[in-house]
Amino acid sequence: MSALAHRQGVDEGRRQGGLRISHAALKRGTLWLLTAVSFLAMIEPSPYEFIFLVTLFVFMLTGLRLSQKLLPMAVLLLLYNIGGVISLIPWMDEEPSVRFTAVSVYLMITAIFFAAIMAEDPIGRLETLRKGYLFAAWCGGLAAILGYFDVGGLAGIFTYAARASGTFKDPNVLGPFLVLPIVFTLQHVLIGRVGLMRGAMVMSVPLMALFLSFSRGAWGNLAGSTLLMVGLLFLTAPNASRRTRIVALTLLALVLVVAALLVALSFENIRSVFEIRASLDQSYDQGVTGRFGSQLRSIPLLLDAPNGFGPLRFRWHFPEDPHNVYINAFASYGWLGGFTYLALMAITCHAGWRLVFTRTPWQNHAIAIWSVLFITILQGVQIDTDHWRHFYLMFGLLWGLAVLRAPESSAR
Question: pTM (2 decimals)?
Answer without folding.
Answer: 0.91
